[in-house]
Amino acid sequence: MTDTQQNQLWGGRFTESTDAFVQAFTASVNFDKRMYAQDIRGSIAHATMLAEAGVLTDAERDAIIEGLNTIKGEIERGEFQWSVALEDVHMNIEARLTDRIGITGKKLHTGRSRNDQVATDIRLWLRDEIDFIDGEMKRLMEGFLGLAEREAATIMPGFTHLQTAQPVTFGHHLLAWFEMIRRDRERLADCRKRVNRMPLGSAALAGTTYPIIRERTRELLGFDEVCFNSLDAVSDRDFAIEFCALAALCMTHLSRMSEELVLWTSAQFQFINLPDRFCTGSSIMPQKKNPDVPELVRGKTGRVNGHLIALLTLMKSQPLAYNKDNQEDKEPLFDAADTLKGCLRAFADMIPAIEPNREIMREAARRGFATATDLADYLVRKGIAFRDAHEIVGKAVAHGVASKKDLADMSLSELQQFSNEIGEDVFDVLTLEGSVSARNHIGGTAPEQVRAAVSRSRQLL
Ligand code: ARG
Predict the structure, then answer these.
(1) pLDDT > 50? residue 3
(2) Alpha-carbon distance 401 to 86, whole Å?
(3) Ligand 1 center from residue 28 Cα (angstroms)
(4) What is the Å distance from ligand 1's center to 88 Cα?
(5) 0.70 exceeded by the pTM?
(6) What φ, ψ does residue 156 adopt, rounded to 5°?
(7) Domains of the chain
(8) Catalytic residue numbers, as ranges
(9) Which letter, b or e, does each residue of 259-289 get, where b requires 16 or more Cβ atoms within 10 Å of its Cβ?
(10) Residue 327 beta carbon below 6 angstroms from any ligand 1 atom
(11) pLDDT one-digit tens code per residue, 141-156
(12) 386 versus 16: which is more confidently predicted?
C-alpha cells in the first residue's frame, strides 16, 4: 500500500502518513467488517436517493449499485482484501468501489459522512439481530409451554429461602420461567422501536447542503422514522445500551434457570435428568456427568453485564456530537448479541429435552412439611383465627420433627392432640394433590390453572 493510497480518503490535508502503530490502533475493520451487508445496503439506498434528488445521474447510480453488489459477492466468497490501512468497513468498501468503477465511486459519499453511515449501519445490524433473537425467544417460550402442559400435574416442592415451602406443580414452575422470557421479549420489541430510526442524512453532525430526500432513504431501508436531530443521531448510542440492558436482564433470567437446573441434576436433588448431549464428563472422575450448558450460560451472564457497563461508561462523558470513543461501541454490542443468541439457542434446544424424575420430586415435596399452610387454612375454615391456627400447626410440625413423621403420616388422634377441631376430612388437605388443586385461581399452581395458562399463553405467541 503506497502513501497516496493510504491517505486517499483524507490525504489532502496531511503531509505525512499515519504512524504504523497508530494506524492499527485506530482501525476497526477487524471487527466492523461484520456489518458489510448493512453498509452496502445503506450505500445502495443512499445512491438511489441521490439520483432521485438529481445529485447523481442514473448512469452513476447504476454503476455504483452494480459495483457494490459485486463487492458484496467478493466479500461473501472470501475474495475481498480487507486493509487495516483503510481503517474501517466503510472506507474499505468505498476504496474498492473506486478501484472498480473509477471516479464515480468517489461520488457515493456525497451528502454523507462516516458518522451518519456508521450509526445507520449499527442500527440496521442490530435490527437484524433483534429479529433473530425474537425468534429464539419465541422458540424457547414454546418449549416451556410444551413441557408445562406435559407436567401440569407433576408435584414438586416449591421453595422460599431454598427451604421447602409449599407443594407446587412442575408445570407452574416452568410457567414462571415462561413469564420471565415473555417480559424479555416485550422489552426486545420495545427496544426495536427506538433502534429502527434512521441517522442517515445527518452527515458529519449538522446535516448537508445537498437536496437529500431523507424520507426516501428511510423508506428504502425500512426504518420507521428518521432521527429528528442530526447532532443526536450521529452521537448517541443509547439504543445499543438499551439492547445490552435487556440482554443482561434476559441473561439474568437464564442464569437463574441455570442455577435451578444445576441443583436439580445433582445427586442431592435428582429432580431431573438432562440428556447426555447437553452434558460433558470429567477426564478424571468416571462417574461425572456435568451440566455444562446451564453452568456456562450462568457464567456468560457476567460478560453481558460487563458489556452493559462498558457501553454506559463509554457514553457518559461524551460531548456532542460524534467522538472516536464511539468506535468502542461495536465489540461489546456484538458480543452481547452473540452471547444472548447462543444462550437462547442452547436453552430452546435443551428445555424440551428435560426428563423429570416425577417420583423423586413428589417424595421431596412430601418431606419438609410442605402442607403445613394447608393445615392452618383448614383450621381457619373451622373457625380458628389464622394466628392461632399458625401456632397449632407449628406445634404439630415440632411433633413431626421429633417423631420423624410428615403431617400426612400422623394418625387422626395424633393430630387431634393439637386441636379438637381436626376431623377425618383433614387428610384431604394434607395430601399433595389436595394442596395444589386447592390453589385454583388465575396465577395459582393447580393443574387446571396450569393447563389454562398454557392455552392462554399459546394465544399470545
Ligand atoms: N470506524 C468509525 C466508528 O466505528 C467510523 C466513524 C468514523 N468517523 C470519523 N470521523 N472518524 O465509529
Answers:
(1) no
(2) 75
(3) 8
(4) 8
(5) yes
(6) -140, 165
(7) 3-110 (1.10.275.10), 115-362 (1.20.200.10), 368-460 (1.10.40.30)
(8) 161, 282
(9) ebbbbbbeeebebbbbeeebbeeeeeeeeee
(10) yes
(11) 999 999 999 999 999 9
(12) 386
